[in-house]
Design a protein that fits this description.
268 residues; 2 domains; 3-stranded antiparallel sheet; alpha+beta
């Protein structure tokens, strides 16, 4: 179990009902709330990465705080909870290659130069940190065909067992291909996952606070004004983003209802 302080969906929903419509409770229905909850969570999550660049600029200007007051340390600590490390097995030979728009199999131009091993990306992948071979050698990452073709044709930078290269596209393609001595060629992928949700209450082998990687944050009702904690899912965000989260959802609801007060409140 991962013990952490996350944002309660029950408290967030209750606060939004008061925040958005203090006199006429009810228009912030669970359906309206759930429609914007995941969107607001993703917006705050994406802001972490732009904050890393901002913190780097602050550090270079020598205006960053020291130790626990460092903006760089602050944002990287928030991002650390989203890091995952998995072992990936290559796709079978019948699955190698790209798929055309009409669904047909397309051979990759690079196979005429050097064979490769292809790996499917995890469904919750957000951004890749590193790719390592079974020998614990990190691959050089490239992101388009022109770059990989130039590398493969070069006598100086041609990939080898000691200098592997990963082409990141719809899949992850490793050059050179696995050898007979390493038939499985399980690579290690370290990446930032997408934010999901946490269980509000436990049951069977699941404890309250465990991650639910299959669900977005959700508020469920067992009856009028009665939450269904079993089917509710908390936000997958650090607790100190609660105020920003509430204001972001309120802003989205204000746009939907064309309520200028709600739209402008978060900006103020």
């Amino acid at each position: 179990m991962y013990i952490c302080f996350m944002i309660s969906v029950l408290e967030t929903y209750s606060t939004l009902v008061e925040y958005c419509n203090k006199d006429q409770k009810g228009f912030v229905t669970p359906k309206v709330f759930n429609a914007f909850a995941a969107l607001a969570q993703k917006k705050i999550y994406n802001s972490f990465f732009s904050s890393v660049a901002t913190a780097k600029g602050v550090r270079m200007n020598q205006t960053d705080g020291s130790r626990e007051f460092s903006a760089d340390k602050y944002i990287k600590e928030d991002l650390s909870r989203y890091i995952r490390k998995v072992r990936l097995e290559p796709l079978s030979s019948g699955q190698v290659g790209y798929t055309s728009a009409d669904g047909g199999s397309v051979a990759h131009d690079n196979y005429s130069i050097m064979d490769s091993s292809v790996y499917k990306k995890p469904s919750d992948l957000s951004r890749i940190i590193s790719v390592s071979t079974p020998r614990k050698i990190q691959c050089e990452l490239v992101y388009n065909d022109d770059d990989i073709n130039n590398i493969l044709r070069s006598n100086l930078s041609r990939p080898s067992v000691n200098f592997p290269v990963a082409l990141v596209g719809s899949d992850i393609e490793i050059f050179p291909k696995s050898t007979s001595s390493e038939p499985n060629y399980l690579i290690t992928l370290s990446y930032y996952r997408q934010p999901r949700s946490l269980y509000v209450t436990g049951y069977n082998d699941i404890s309250a606070g465990d991650f639910d990687f299959t669900s977005e944050p959700t508020y469920a009702e067992a009856g009028p004004d009665l939450p269904d904690a079993f089917n509710c899912r908390d936000f997958d965000l650090p607790e100190h983003y609660k105020a920003e989260l509430i204001e972001t959802i309120a802003g989205y609801i204000g746009i939907k209802l064309r309520d200028n007060v709600l739209v402008n409140k978060p900006q103020q």
